[in-house]
Design brief:
By secondary structure, this protein is α/β, with parallel strands linked by helices. The protein has a seven-stranded mixed sheet with strand order 24-23-22-21-25-26-27. The chain contains 23 helices and 27 strands. It folds into three domains: 260 residues, Aconitase, domain 3 (2-Layer Sandwich), CATH 3.30.499.10; 152 residues, Aconitase, domain 3; 178 residues, Aconitase, domain 4 (Alpha-Beta Barrel), CATH 3.20.19.10. The chain is globular and about 75 Å long. The structure holds alpha-methylisocitric acid and iron/sulfur cluster. Alpha-methylisocitric acid binds next to helix 2. Alpha-methylisocitric acid (MIC) binds next to helix 2.
Length: 649
């Protein structure tokens, strides 16, 4: 039987297990990517593991999320990261050089290689045939030390693209259509492999918009085959030698098939406040817009800014609307500036930001109260923009720019008809990505050979091995689709504590209940209860690390998001699955005790645990875990487990 492209790459990198969906496999990692807000813990853990040199072919450390450095703690984190990259042997991308996924795509992404990154949008270079997976920081630290990465073998789904995009429909509409059909849970345990005749019409930047936002489907990864478009892109970025022809076998078998006819797509938009809340733009036309932003790792590159610049040439942004462009890479900004497009945008009333994630996580450009913001980003979770009750819509650069011109949401087809001289700008790549690489420091050029830790940089907390009893008061009961932004928000006032867990934990779940941290500490151990898809969104391991620090021993949820589930194991919190009736019956404040000897049960492969509530009634919870995950839980987390493995204890 033939293989899918995903299976081929996994097979090439397989060190443990078999490619059977649902089974755990161990794979070799070629490249790693870390960013500033997850990277500090990664390197602290790398150090705590006693590791001395990066063992992967390539490691790259980016500073992209909080580049405004409002506080010396941010700048200290960046200096620490530079020193860690130099000391341990990673490339270092300076603050302001751009968003990790975009800079990585332009400089290092290569077909057929595996990439593991401490950011959930790591799958972005799947658009050029790289198998890229997002994971928690500790998993990256171990991979950089040469250890395999363990993941459940995903089901591979064939997304067959037919036809070609027409008129004002864009790559963003392809992924919005997928979200409309499948929802934010639709990709859990899956890799989406794009195939079919429609693939060849999409350039690499269009493909990476799709693979980037596959994360919003909950997918393990998304990938395209390589072809003339990939070759062309790699030539333009100056790395033709990285090209490799990759495609699935003709008789490959997929778990499922989804057909998207590109020629039938129209401009789509995700309404507040979930990326799958997708409707045709025409359904929400007329809504007044006060802010428009082009940027983020999804749609912030040269190819995403240029269409807006072409549409705005000789026009102005509506008087009650602010339009901001935040380039995804400094290289994109530099090329646009050299070509004169930056001046055109400025003349039209556009405000330019530095190349950063920034506003995507509520740092800068917070929308006005009770106003609509249209963004080309990938996430619009409630409150993520920096203000609760926000109204953030997600759309393509073309739809965003049309709204900036009109001052209200408008389908660009209708605006074009109204204006008479507005044409669809299409996609254009620069002849050469020839920006300076002054901000990208090769490990051989590094000036650092020891770690520089400012006063805010703390230690890595550890947990005791799992004992006989687990449980306690259910300190918080939550709904479905709780995001890691709810668990540990990423706004500026909090982000500066990503390397200081003691302080950061004070903010745990504060967006759901601002007394949570105090109550958890007072209860001296406890549990959490949640609905479906608990922990969706980011890879931030702090969303497990901080609850662990506050004494949370178990999470009872109807289902878990992939990366967060792995992070719970990594920090010794027992993730238990419950059914709908149990979820309904448990109340916040109930005392839940796992009756069975948990330590022994976890070690012995038990899958069901009896739990008693208030000495009153009982339910059964499921533990779905591989042998390795059980050992990690028993050891009190992955750091202790990895050390035990190394010393043979
Ligand atoms: C996000 O988009 O939520 C982030 C901020 O990039 C996170 C990483 C983080 O929390 O530092 C992610 O997606 O993993
Ligand atoms: Fe940065 Fe936003 Fe992309 Fe996360 S989703 S990497 S915060 S631009």
């Amino acid at each position: 039987m033939g293989q899918t492209l995903t299976e081929k790459i996994l097979d090439d990198h397989l060190v443990e297990g078999e490619l059977t969906p649902g089974e755990e496999i161990g794979i070799d990692i070629d490249q790693t990517l870390t960013q500033d807000t997850t990277g500090t813990m990664v390197w602290l853990q790398f150090e705590a593991l006693g590791l001395e040199d990066v063992q992967t072919e390539l490691a790259a450390q980016y500073c992209d999320h909080q580049t405004y450095q409002f506080d010396f703690k941010n700048t200290d984190d960046h200096r620490f990261l530079r020193s860690a990259a130099g000391t341990f042997g990673a490339h270092f991308s300076r603050p302001g050089n751009g968003i990790c996924h975009n800079v990585h795509k332009e400089n290092f992404a290569a077909p057929g290689k595996t990439l593991l990154g401490s950011d959930s949008h790591t799958p972005t270079p799947g658009g050029l045939g790289q198998l890229a997976i997002g994971a928690g920081g500790l998993d990256i630290a171990v991979a950089m030390g040469g250890g395999p990465y363990y993941v459940e073998m995903p089901e591979v789904v064939n997304v067959r693209l037919e036809g070609e995009l027409e008129g004002w429909a864009s790559a963003k509409d392809v992924i919005l259509e997928m979200l409309r059909r499948l929802s934010v849970k639709g990709g859990v345990g899956k890799v989406f492999e794009y195939t079919g005749p429609g693939v060849e019409s999409l350039t690499v930047p269009e493909r990476t918009t799709i693979t980037n936002m596959g994360t919003e489907l909950g997918a393990t990864s998304s990938i395209f085959p390589t072809d003339e478009q990939t070759k062309d892109y790699l030539e333009r970025v100056g790395r033709p030698e990285d090209f490799e022809k990759l495609e699935p076998d003709a008789d490959a078998e997929y778990a499922d098939e989804i057909v998207v006819d590109l020629s039938e797509l129209e401009p789509l938009i995700a309404k507040p406040s979930m990326p799958d809340n997708v409707v045709p733009v025409r359904e929400v036309e007329g809504e007044r817009v006060e802010q428009v932003m082009i940027g983020s790792c999804t749609n912030g590159s040269y190819e995403d800014i240029l269409p807006g610049a072409k549409m705005l040439k000789g026009r102005e942004v509506a008087k009650h609307t602010e339009m901001i462009v935040a380039p995804a890479s400094k290289q994109s900004a530099e090329i646009l500036a050299r070509q004169g497009w930056t001046a055109e945008l400025m003349a039209a009333g556009v405000n330019f930001s530095e190349a950063t994630c920034g506003a995507c996580i509520g740092i800068g450009h917070v929308p006005a109260s009770d106003s609509v913001s249209l963004r080309t980003f990938n996430r619009n979770f409630e409150g993520r923009s920096g203000i609760e009750d926000d109204s953030v819509y997600l759309c393509s650069p073309e739809v965003a720019t049309a709204a900036a011109i009109k001052g209200e949401i408008v389908d660009p087809r209708d605006l074009a008809e109204e204006l008479g001289d507005l044409e669809s700008p299409g996609i254009e790549l620069p002849d050469e990505y020839d920006g300076s690489d002054a901000d990208l420091i090769d490990p051989n050029e590094s000036i650092d050979d020891e770690l520089i830790k400012g006063p805010n940089i703390g230690d890595v907390p550890l947990k005791d091995p799992l004992g006989d009893t687990v449980g306690g008061e259910s300190i918080l009961k939550m709904d479905d689709n709780i995001t890691t932004d709810h668990i540990i928000p990423a706004t500026a006032d909090i982000l500066m504590y990503r390397s200081n867990i003691e302080k950061l934990s004070e903010f745990t779940l504060s967006r759901v209940d601002d007394t949570f941290a105090d109550r958890a500490l007072e209860a001296d151990g406890g549990t959490l209860v949640a609905g479906e898809n608990y922990g969706q969104g980011s890879s931030r391991e702090h969303a497990a690390l901080c609850p662990m620090y506050l004494g949370i021993e178990a999470v009872f949820a109807q289902s878990f998001a992939r990366i967060h589930r792995a992070n719970l194991f990594n920090f010794g919190i027992v993730p238990l699955t419950i059914d709908d009736d149990t979820y309904e019956q448990i109340e916040q404040g109930d005392d839940i005790t796992v009756v069975d000897d948990v330590g022994a049960g976890v070690r012995n492969g038990e899958e069901q645990f009896t739990c008693r509530v208030n000495d009153d009634w009982e339910f059964t919870a499921q533990l779905h875990a591989s042998e390795r995950e059980r050992d990690i839980l028993a050891a009190g987390g992955k750091l202790s487990w990895t050390k035990e493995q190394a010393t043979g204890d």
